[in-house]
Amino acid sequence: MVAVFYKGWFTCGGSIISTEWILTAAHCVYKRNSSAFSIISGTIELDREIDEEVPVSQVIYHESYQVNSNLANDVAVLRLFTALVYDENIRPVTLPSYQEKIPDYAETNIMGWGTQKYNGTPSPALLKAVLHVVPNSICNTAYSSYNYHILSSNLCAGTLGGGVGQCTGDSGGPMVYFDDVGYPQIGIVSFSAKPCGSKYFPGVYTRVSRS
After folding, report:
1. Residues 128-138 as b or e (16 or more Cβ within 10 Å = b)
2. From CA 112, how far away is CA 43, in angstroms rounded?
3. Mean pLDDT on 176-182
4. Domain that residue 110 falls in
5. Any domain includes 95
6. Where is the Peptidase S1 domain (predicted)?
7. Tell me, what's the pLDDT at 66?
8. Is 198 known to be catalytic?
């Protein structure tokens, strides 16, 4: 897990896919100056003085990203100026296969430094939440009131009672799922209705296996 900064301000989460590349959401970086981005890794504290910042040299977002259409293909990668050095706290995520099947209502985990309420401030320490996959058909019905269409390249997840889920600043962060071989990253935090964690509107994620 990494924290992504833009012009010195925390803006999104991301995950390590190699020593030089970070996976995040396209809406975090769309039409922004790549040289203004940096990341920190290897810490659960959102303190830029704890770990050395690594500047970003290149931003690439999905060629079919649609900013005004449900954030379709909401995925991007950041290339680092300096390669990371792996240790016990800095490791790459496992990526799923294209055929990865995620059962409805499967337990997943998300993490990030996002706010704990809408219009709040970022959390100083990394937070984790346990969510369950919501069938796309149910998610699509919920978001139809916003004229959003949930795509096959999306995953949705939430909790039965609400009150837990992604919020501002969690965008770009990972959703992971336990399978037979480990904890692959199956989703990237994309968007959700407000207020955060609404029981009527599951969070929406970019499905990594379709990206």
Report:
1. ebebbbbebee
2. 12
3. 83
4. 106-210
5. no
6. 1-211
7. 85
8. no
The reply to whether 34 belongs to the active site is no
Q: What is the pLDDT of residues 2-33, one digit of tens each?
A: 999 999 999 999 999 999 999 999 999 999 99
27 & 110 share domain: no
Structural tokens at position 209: 């296996």
What is the domain-level CATH number for residue 152? Answer: 2.40.10.10
CA-CA-CA-CA dihedral for 41, 46, 49, 53, to nearest 10? 30
Q: How far apart are CA 71 and CA 176, in angstroms?
A: 21
Tell me if 100 is assigned to some domain.
no
Q: What are the structure tokens assigned to 169, written together?
A: 């600043």
If asked whether residues 119 and 70 sit together in one domain, one would say no
Residue 85 lies inside a defined structural domain of this protein: no
Candidate list 27, 38, 153, 170, residue with the active-site label: 27
Q: Which member of 15, 123, 153, 171 is catalytic?
A: 171
61 and 146 in a common domain: no
* Residue 62 annotated as catalytic: no
Closest CA to 38 of 9, 77, 17: 9
The catalytic position among 15, 38, 41, 74 is 74
